[in-house]
Amino acid sequence: MTATRLNTSGTNGDHFQSHYIPSTVDEQAEMLAALGIDSIDQLFADIPDEFRNPTLDLPAPLSELEIQQELGQMAGKNRPMGSGPSFLGAGAYNHFIPAIVKALITRGEFLTAYTPYQAEASQGTLQVIYEFQTLICNLYDMEVANAGMYDGATSLAEATLMACRVTKREKVALADSISPAYIDVIRTYCQSQDIVVEVVDPTNPSLDGETACLVLQYPNYFGYIEDQQKLVDAAHAQGALAVVSCDPTAMGMLQTPGHYGADIVTGDGQPLGIPASYGGPYVGLFAAKQEFIRQMPSRLSGRTVDKNGKTGYVLTLQTREQHIRRERATSNICTNEALYALASTIYLAAMGKQGMRQVAELCYHKAHYAAAQIGELPGYSLPISGSFFQEFVVQCPTSPTEINKKLMERNILGGLDVSEKVPNGMLLCVTEMNSKEDIDALVAALSEFK
Amino acid sequence: MQQGGNRKTEKLLLQRSVPGRVGVVLPGLDVPTQPMPDDSMLRNELALPELSEPEVVQYFTGLSLKNFSIDTHFYPLGSCTMKYNPKINDEIAFQPGFAGIHPMQPVEQSQGALELLHKLQGFLGEITGLPGISLATLAGAHGELGGMLMIRAHHLANGETGRLKVAIPDSAHGTNPASAAMAGFEVVELASDKDGNVDLDALRSVAGPDLAGVMITLPSTLGLFDTNIVEVCNIVHEAGGLVYGDGANMNALLGRVKLGDLGFDVCHLNLHKTFSTPHGGGGPGAGPVCCTEQLAPYLAAPMVTQNGDAYDLFTPEKSIGKLSGFHGNFGVLVRAYTYIRTLGNAGIKSISGNAVLSANYMMNALRGVYHLPYDRTCMHEAVFSADLQKERGSSGLEIAKRLLDYGFHAPTMYFPMIVHEALMIEPTESETKETIDAFIQALIDIDREVTEDTELVNNAPHTTPVARLDEARAARQPDLRWQPETAD
Hints:
The structure holds 2 protein chains of 2 kinds. In chain A, 35% of the residues lie in helices and 13% in strands. Chain A is an alpha/beta fold. Chain A folds into 2 domains: 84-93 and 354-448, Aspartate Aminotransferase, domain 1 (Alpha-Beta Complex); 100-345, Aspartate Aminotransferase, domain 2 (3-Layer(aba) Sandwich). Chain B folds into 2 domains: 88-343, 3-Layer(aba) Sandwich (Aspartate Aminotransferase, domain 2), CATH 3.40.640.10; 344-466, Aspartate Aminotransferase, domain 1, CATH 3.90.1150.10. The longest helix of chain B is centred in the last third of the chain and has 37 residues, at 330-366. At the A-B interface, helix 1, helix 2, helix 3, helix 4 and helix 5 of A face helix 2, helix 3, helix 4, helix 5 and helix 6 of B.
């Protein structure tokens, strides 16, 4: 065997031997010869000369070893929730994730597959979506669920647009107790559609015959449980739809939006086995009454048979979607968050009937234990009365942002400063991840900040 | 031994459920029991499965084996850029310092994440020549919506309330017209000329005071670089409109040309295509929006800024608002950052070079066997027509299904809509020449089968877990979830 000179520069003209690209110089030469040309650059002759091959100023390439070191250092500048007691929620939650979720979603057969348009080659993904639709329907007590949206915020925004299509009305009422981020996203989605967005008081929502929907969050952004039956009935009395964004973890114990008669139920699937990951990727949950199915956005997997009578699954009712209906589609959504719909399905399968109930109850009891302790501290109070699930608002003696800084000195991640809504208000979240020891440490620390 | 394992997957989760089994054991309650809410507030039934952990693992593993994927099959799906997804990218994104951080935690506790996002903004600006970047949009179509809302906001800010039309080529992906409509525009379809470029006369006829802009995919979904692109941008700009770029096909152009230099005002990128993040069976993606400095004040919130050594989130001055709950699909952004950092200048340029070389090599080898409606140098993908085979009895669909029997995923079929019996094939840079040669041979063999044994082709696939499915029945009698009363 002759010695091969190693090219250590890695930037030999048009040839860079990346470990992700198999073709060698020799193979490139063979392919170019078949085309009767002698350089790759000739393939780009359609690009006007003055713009072809611009200077590109990216940092020098790194080996995998260097990548691990550099990105490990970058990750080290963040404070992950697992590194100490964490009491932050407000739309993204710290829940236990069984090891099997990551083990299964990182199987290449799931991870590196495309959208299952080619049904015979995608039965795994299609059956998973069908399972996901089934379990989300059962969780919310609804009749039909889709294959998922981007996140909880966009699910809710698409639900408001859908309510306008269903009712042929152009005004939506949002309870002022839903997430401010959700309100912002709904406004962005509605800005170009001539839809009027009103923010209403959920204790006395002013609705009229022009209102397409009343939009609620359950439990609400502050963790509290509003009178769902009264609010759903108020919407229906005006011919409006009741649209509810609902925390899936709470469904382990609380009465369902379906029971109260909600028309469209959305949620963020993040609590179902998905890491907080600085805000994404998550999966948007989206369920509705059967009668509205043709107005739903996003994909649906349906069960059918093959030509031999064997059960199989296909994407169905696609005439709602952009690749068929183009500008008249129910939504522009194409790529969604299928991998995280899979994660949620695995999570729900593993947690099951008993696990979901246990998680919900652990969150409930721990949150109420924490609230009771903090509420008795001098200078602290619980300004909002009523039932809550795993989040609650504490009125602090001083600025919550300042208190959070002091908590972080003890490596405790405090709650969200909601002073804009409640003077010196801190929105705290307690889940099954917080031990009694964590909670007691939080209470002890708060007692010192007056 | 049965190939691909022998765990049965026919029964669904709820059909497998056995009362009393558990899949997870949780810690006990370590605080005193608290008063429960009124019974009326609690649910009675919760129809979730009861399964042990091994059953869950075996069921989902069994299902995974019924998929084609990049790791198991060549996946030449046109316009989808099904390239290799590096495993290191997943490892980096899953480490606790990234996967375990809360989106609302104080920025002081998220400096590493913000630093990564800020640098990624810079990389994508450099690659596109469009320096204003928002990473907050969660997929390609989501980026399109953001970009089109920016165009709308720009015209409204200039008092141009009458610019309500958006022109879109007839070859465009369906998300383009759907996104334009969601952004409140009326869609006008633009014809393509005989070379597959935008028909300039058709464009001139709509380039008036009511034109908000155009949406152009470059290279087009025909796999062609539009040789009139600079003229297209000029015509639109002279009429007061803006040019939107659909970045779905950016794999062809990496390091070869910058969209900003050509005259594009705003575009999105599909990080789950060009920048190798795994498609996950239909997502997650990420669709960052890149724009000129002029349009940057309209970008979706939040963006990341650097002040000295510190990074922070901010909302641009005239932002169209928030389009997602938090800061974008961070885990996907981490993967794309890792990919760009691994490759550098030469590697990025090597992607487009090898992707375009492979596509042309394949196109050349199949010329004469399959009809080429636009026979010119292609970019990263080639669009054939199965017209010749259809005359002999097999359509594009049947050829695509037959490819599954050869162990190759089917190409994109019947798209773009302006090509009869379209087969759109994108090999990507990460496949070996041996694989591409084997794929070429398979298409040649299938062409022969169409003549010699039409039924064999038309009844394909024969080797997949199911045969061709009854889609009409699925649509007529929708069965979208398992219910005990309808159980089979």
